[in-house]
Amino acid sequence: GENVEQHPSTLSVQEGDSAVIKCTYSDSASNYFPWYKQELGKRPQLIIDIRSNVGEKKDQRIAVTLNKTAKHFSLHITETQPEDSAVYFCAAYMDSNYQLIWGAGTKLIIKP
Amino acid sequence: EAGVAQSPRYKIIEKRQSVAFWCNPISGHATLYWYQQILGQGPKLLIQFQNNGVVDDSQLPKDRFSAERLKGVDSTLKIQPAKLEDSAVYLCASSLSALAGGGNEQFFGPGTRLTVL
Questions:
Q1: Residue B25 contacts A where some CB pair is shorter than 8 Å
Q2: Does pLDDT of B13 surpass 80?
Q3: Which region among B30-34, B89-93, B94-98 has the lowest average model confidence (pLDDT)?
Q4: Alpha-carbon distance B49 to A22, whole Å?
Q5: Burial class (CB in 10 A: 0-12, 13-18, 19+), A40
Q6: Rg of chain B (C-alpha set)
Q7: Given CB atoms, is B6 within the 8 Å cutoff of chain A?
Q8: Beta strands at B10-13 and B112-116: parallel, antiparallel or unpaired
Q9: Quick one: what percent of chain B has pLDDT higher than 70?
Q10: B48 contacts in A (CB within 8 Å)?
Q11: Which residues of chain A neighbour B104 with C-beta distances below 8 Å?
C-alpha cells in the first residue's frame, strides 16, 4: 500500500529564515498532495495542496513543489514568523482506494 | 458556513467502561472520517464513510470500536470496553466527496479528548 515518509521530524529555524519540509511517497498513482498545519491543542487545517498535473503552487509565504519522477514533494515557508510554529503534516491521496495517507509530521519551531 | 461539530469536547472514563462520541459534518459533505490522534503522533484513520456506507475501516479495532452513520449525515463512534491505550484525541472530519476523484480538503472538528484511567 501507499506509504508517506516525512522529514525532518523536528525543524528549528530563526525567525525570518526559510523552512523546508520534505515528503516522499511510494505509489506513483497518488494524485493529490495536501499539507495540514496543526497548532498545539487545535485541529489540523489545510494550508496548501497540489495536484499531480502541477509542479509548483504558491500562496504568499508558502509554496509546495512536486517531483512526480522522484515521488517527492516539499513545503517551503519563507520569512518565517512566530505564528508558523506548529506541527505540519503532508499527505498523499489515491483515487484507486480513496485513501489519504498521512506523514508522521514535522514540528516546526521558530526561534525569536 | 458552520464547521464540523463534535461532542463532547472532553471525556474521562475508567478502563472497561464504554464511551460514545458524536459528529455532525458540514452540510452537503458526503464523506466523513474518524481519526485517532495520540499525543505527539499524526492522525490515524479509524473509519471512512461515504454517505451511510463504509469505504475503509481497516484500522478500526472492531473488537471494541464501532461506528455508524445511519442516515448519511451525523455519526457516532463508540468504544466498549475502553483500554488505557485508547487515551487520545478523536477527530472527526468531512469532505465533499472522496469518491468524486482527485481528492479534496478535509475539514476537521475540534476533537474529543478522551482520558482512560
A1: no
A2: yes
A3: B94-98
A4: 30
A5: exposed
A6: 14
A7: no
A8: parallel
A9: 96
A10: 98-99
A11: 32
Higher-pLDDT residue of A63 and B41 is A63
pLDDT along chain A (112 residues), means of 10: 91 98 94 96 95 93 96 98 98 85 96 94
Residues 6+ apart with CB under 8 A from A92: A2, A4, A23, A25, A27, A30, A32, A33, A100, A101
Confidence at B30, pLDDT banded by 50, 70, 90 = very high
Q: Which one of B106, B107, B112 would you mutate to disrupt binding with A, by most A Cβ within 10 Å of its Cβ?
A: B106
Take residue A35 and report the three cell numbers written for it. 499539507
Q: What angle do CA A93, B91, A42 make, to 5 degrees?
A: 100
C-alpha cell read off for A10: 523536528
Does any CB of chain A come closer than 8 Å to the CB of residue B105?
yes
Predicted confidence at residue B101, as pLDDT, reads 67
The C-alpha angle with vertex A44 and arms to B6 and B110, in degrees rounded to 5, equals: 20
Of B48, B50, B105, the CB nearest to A46: B105
B103 vs A contacts (CB less than 8 Å): 31-32, 34, 49, 51, 93, 95, 100
